[in-house]
């Protein structure tokens, strides 16, 4: 029975208990949902949970049933005490629990780990600590004394409703604050909410949407799914990345990582606030204090793992298509690219190379010359990558298909809920079984299959697809097990298809470490680990793996492409946000299918997409079998010339890009980054996701609109060198933080170099990275004080363990007082002595030089309107001093 007393106060009788005076005077934007399962709902259903009921017209996302300020069934904090790692306590429910949508656990354990001065971790588990936890290897913290000068903790009073605040000390901003709503903790339902200090929130993927997350009741599901992206995106996609970066009102940043691999969702609301829900596992949160966004990502990758060091050839241009139909046609494209002198380092094949679409085979009729194709590529310094799907066909006769026979014999397959037989699905070859990549024996199994295939076709990298795991049916041929709470949980986040087993296997299926219900979204990550391991064993060189499905730490083992994007201008535009988000997720080797995968492109779109794709960290053209051909050589001669020029810019900048990947590998840095990462105090940058930066030194402003021949580019305050106004000629620009209109005819993509940076470049003179000479060029752009700095990392580009073996060099470039110096910061002097500097372009020199000397010897130079080009006698880069006098 419900008696209405005032507009904001109810008296509620529940199970013969009187709960008096609920405080329901809560603004609509501050309501936290108390009944997320369904709408509409009745008042009785709501008040049985002890919650407030008030229908809201005009926005269906605003909760009708929401928590009162004095919720009667909230956990209270007891037994809080200091321990060696920080704090621990108990959370208890003082009253009888209500179904929400499952019975909540009566006693929980709170553990707060004061791990580092800029990192706090807290876990909430049941007191027996026997729930599933994500098997992520986090580096151990050795020190026992914790520095808390950068943050403070505030707990609720003992025997009061539990809340936790993590507060930045110098600004008093709460970076995590659970006081907005009570936590809920049941066997298959977890919920926790936090205030957000601003609406500038980024991450929470995988999304195909704007970079900054909409906080107007945005609901984001996390559950790896085979779903082609849409614009705007409303459904969960291939990967699961429950991590966000938030910019606070004063420009400082922090990050929050929810370490949980079960199906979950995040609901953002205008308060601003965020509510996490998961249907399994535990609450395990990391909070990173930054204070700048680049540091937040570095702190995050210190937990999940820093990115792999890619082979240099993988930074070249890649070409692929589903629908080459024959190996001879595939080679024909390679030869046409060579003839057109368009750079290409890697040729790929999609599933049409396979025999009956079965893994680890090739069609001996249509692709009979595939081994010869790979030999041809290798003879020209090029490389080969092919697709592999996780589904292993069970159609061939016993003994005729080793991948299936070995999987059964080695017992490395996913099982049904009885653990008695393999669970089956249907994908490209028909009915299949699925390897269990969480099983330790998967490593010898997977390596054996790839080794056997490599002996026939000596591939260089592996493209793993369909690993959500994708299924062409819902569940299995035998149907998912009825009347169980794994396939049909009490609460299902708003995942695409409405069911956890939509286009995938039954969550009740069993794997080595747990049920698929727990580890489903880890499939892609564990397959990446097994594939990376196999490539190291087989090739004895750096592995190159590109995966569709990803989870935190995937960047340690490979890269990602953004899936089945469409050949549309809207997908071109939103791809920038996707590339930037995955760099935040610690997966810098990322790109979208250039020119689009689905549908048919047109020449203008393909040109503009290639110009942008030349600055994707992973640069690959790939399209669908049903679409029109879109390789560069399928376009007009004019288009080929434009595309060639764009790719030559990429190849020229490869030393800089390679150095950024080195910094990512060593420090956990981003490679492609949003403008606000470099200019966090400039609020104008917070919404920009149509421009981006390579590292801190290069700004890219691509053309993203049909028919456009200009770009409105925002230049943050500082000195920039690049195009301005109606001309594409480069000149110095002193910006106060302003938008400039830049000429961008179809032949151009606007690029600006930031003052204060030295950009190392290569002397591109061939079709591949391998054929690029060991000669280098420096672009040195001074800041207002005449200073600049930069680095160049270099090694042989393909060997394992070059850093630990010392087979590398890290050069440092410093410019000040009319002097540019190159020096060895780390590594091998022998490697540096074999590198030659042939040209230095100085920008921002405020005088006409009278003379220029290199290592004390006069050298020729040219002075243009805005630059000095210094010709050098190919000096060894171990130590060079260049001076100019005015």
Overall helicity: 10-25%
Main sheet record: 9 strands, parallel
Q: Within the largest sheet, what's the order of strands?
A: 31-30-29-28-24-23-22-33-32
Write the CATH homologous superfamily of the domain at 76-304: glycosyl hydrolase (family 31)
| CATH architecture descriptor of the domain at 76-304 | Sandwich
Mean pLDDT, rounded to whole units?
94
How far is the N terminus from the C terminus? 90 Å
What is the beta-strand fraction?
A: 25-35%
**What is the name of the CATH topology of the domain at 76-304?**
Immunoglobulin-like
Shape: globular
Structural class: alpha+beta
CATH class membership of the domain at 76-304: Mainly Beta
Radius of gyration: 29 Å
Low-confidence stretches: 1-19
What is the total tally of β strands?
52
DSSP helix count? 15
Topology:
Layout: E1 2-6, E2 9-14, E3 17-23, H1 43-47, E4 52-53, E5 65-66, E6 76-83, E7 86-92, E8 107-116, E9 119-126, E10 151-155, E11 164-168, E12 174-177, E13 184-186, E14 189-195, E15 201-205, E16 218-222, E17 241-247, E18 253-258, E19 264-269, E20 273-278, E21 283-288, H2 293-304, E22 317-319, H3 327-339, E23 346-349, H4 370-379, E24 383-388, E25 392-393, H5 402-410, E26 424-427, E27 430-433, H6 442-454, E28 461-464, H7 516-519, H8 523-539, E29 545-547, E30 559-561, H9 569-584, E31 590-591, E32 593-594, H10 603-613, E33 619-621, H11 637-652, H12 654-667, E34 672-673, H13 675-678, E35 692-694, E36 698-700, E37 710-715, E38 718-724, E39 727-735, E40 738-743, E41 751-754, E42 757-762, E43 775-781, E44 788-794, H14 802-805, E45 809-816, E46 819-827, H15 829-833, E47 836-843, E48 851-854, E49 857-858, E50 861-863, E51 867-876, E52 880-885
Parallel strand pairs: 22-23, 22-33, 23-24, 24-28, 28-29, 29-30, 30-31, 32-33, 43-47
Antiparallel strand pairs: 1-2, 2-3, 4-5, 6-7, 7-8, 8-9, 9-21, 10-11, 11-12, 13-14, 14-20, 15-17, 16-19, 17-18, 18-21, 19-20, 25-27, 26-27, 34-35, 35-36, 36-41, 37-40, 38-39, 38-41, 42-43, 44-45, 45-46, 46-52, 47-51, 48-49, 48-52, 50-51
């Amino acid at each position: 029975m419900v008696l209405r007393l005032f507009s904001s106060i109810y008296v509620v009788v529940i199970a013969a208990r009187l709960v008096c005076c609920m405080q329901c005077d809560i603004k609509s934007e501050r309501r936290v949902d108390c009944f997320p399962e369904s709408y509409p709902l009745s008042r009785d259903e709501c008040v049985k949970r002890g919650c407030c009921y008030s229908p809201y017209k005009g926005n269906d996302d605003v909760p009708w049933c929401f928590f009162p300020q004095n919720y009667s069934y909230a956990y209270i904090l007891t037994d809080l005490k200091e321990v060696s790692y920080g704090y621990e306590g108990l959370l208890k429910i003082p009253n009888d629990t209500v179904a929400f949508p499952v019975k909540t656990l009566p006693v929980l354990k709170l553990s707060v780990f004061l791990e580092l001065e800029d990192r706090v971790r807290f876990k909430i588990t049941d007191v027996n600590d026997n729930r599933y936890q994500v098997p992520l290897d986090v580096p151990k913290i050795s020190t026992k004394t914790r520095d808390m000068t950068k943050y403070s903790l505030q707990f609720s009073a003992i025997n009061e409703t539990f809340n936790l605040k993590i507060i930045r000390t110098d600004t008093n901003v709460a970076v995590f604050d659970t006081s907005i709503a009570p936590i809920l903790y049941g066997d298959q339902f977890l919920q926790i909410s936090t205030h957000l200090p601003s609406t500038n929130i980024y991450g929470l993927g995988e999304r195909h949407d704007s970079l900054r997350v909409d906080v107007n009741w945005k609901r984001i599901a996390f559950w790896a799914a085979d779903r082609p992206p849409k614009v705007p995106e409303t459904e969960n996609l291939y990967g699961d990345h429950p991590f966000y970066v938030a910019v606070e009102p004063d420009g400082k940043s922090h990050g929050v990582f929810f370490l949980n691999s079960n199906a979950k969702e995040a609901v953002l609301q205008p308060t601003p606030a965020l509510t996490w829900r998961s249907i399994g596992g535990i609450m395990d949160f990391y909070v990173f204090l930054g204070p700048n966004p680049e540091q937040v990502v570095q702190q995050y990758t210190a937990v999940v793992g820093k990115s792999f060091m890619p082979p240099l050839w993988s930074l070249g241009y890649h070409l692929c298509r589903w629908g080459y139909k024959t190996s001879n046609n595939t080679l024909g494209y390679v030869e046409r690219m060579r003839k057109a002198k368009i750079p290409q380092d890697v040729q790929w094949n999609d599933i049409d190379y396979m025999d009956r679409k079965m893994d680890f085979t090739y069609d001996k009729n249509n692709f009979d010359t595939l081994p010869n194709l790979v030999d041809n590529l290798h003879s020209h310094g090029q490389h080969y990558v092919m697709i592999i799907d996780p589904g292993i066909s069970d159609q061939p006769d016993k003994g005729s298909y080793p991948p299936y026979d070995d999987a059964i014999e080695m017992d490395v397959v996913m099982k049904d809920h009885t653990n008695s037989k393999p669970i089956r699905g249907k994908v490209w070859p028909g009915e299949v079984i699925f390897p269990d990549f969480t099983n330790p024996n998967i490593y010898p199994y997977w390596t054996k299959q790839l080794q056997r295939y490599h002996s026939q076709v000596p591939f260089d990298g592996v493209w793993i697809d369909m690993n959500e795991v994708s299924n062409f049916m819902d569940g299995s041929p035998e149907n998912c097990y009825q009347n169980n709470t794994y396939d049909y949980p009490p609460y299902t986040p708003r995942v695409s298809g409405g069911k956890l087993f939509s286009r995938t296997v039954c969550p009740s299926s069993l794997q080595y470490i747990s049920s698929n219900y727990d580890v489903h979204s880890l499939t892609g990550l564990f397959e990446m680990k097994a594939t990376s391991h196999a490539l190291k064993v087989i090739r004895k060189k750096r592995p190159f793996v590109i995966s569709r499905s990803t989870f935190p730490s995937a960047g340690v083992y490979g890269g990602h492409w953004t899936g089945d994007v469409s050949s549309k201008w809207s997908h071109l535009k939103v791809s920038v946000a996707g590339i930037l988000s995955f760099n935040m997720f610690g997966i810098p080797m990322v790109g979208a299918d250039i020119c689009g995968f689905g549908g048919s492109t047109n020449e203008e779109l393909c040109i503009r997409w290639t110009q942008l794709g030349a600055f994707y960290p992973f640069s690959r053209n790939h399209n669908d079998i049903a679409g029109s051909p879109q390789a560069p050589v399928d376009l007009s001669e004019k288009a080929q010339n434009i595309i060639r020029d764009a790719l030559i810019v990429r190849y020229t900048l490869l030393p800089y890009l390679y150095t950024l990947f080195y910094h990512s590998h060593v420090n956990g840095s981003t490679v492609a980054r949003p403008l606000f990462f470099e200019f966090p105090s400039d609020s104008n940058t917070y919404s920009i996701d149509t421009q981006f930066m390579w590292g801190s030194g290069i700004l890219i402003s691509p053309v993203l609109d049909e028919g456009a021949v200009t770009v409105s580019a925002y230049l943050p305050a500082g000195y920039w060198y690049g195009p301005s106004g109606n001309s594409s000629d480069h000149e110095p620009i002193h910006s106060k933080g302003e938008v400039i209109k830049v000429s961008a005819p179809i032949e151009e993509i606007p690029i600006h170099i930031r003052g204060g940076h030295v950009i190392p470049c290569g002397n591109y003179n061939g079709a591949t990275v391998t054929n690029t000479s060991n000669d280098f060029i420096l672009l040195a752009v001074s800041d207002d004080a005449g200073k600049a700095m930069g680095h160049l990392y270099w090694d042989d580009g393909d060997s394992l363990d070059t850093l630990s073996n010392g087979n590398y060099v890290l050069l440092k470039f410093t410019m000040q007082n009319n002097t540019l110096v190159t020096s060895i910061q780390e590594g091998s002097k022998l490697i540096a002595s074999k590198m030659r500097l042939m040209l230095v372009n100085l920008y921002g020199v405020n005088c006409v030089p009278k003379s220029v000397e290199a290592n004390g010897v006069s050298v020729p130079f040219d002075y243009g309107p805005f630059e000095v080009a210094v010709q050098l006698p190919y000096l060894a880069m171990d130590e060079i001093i260049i001076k100019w006098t005015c």
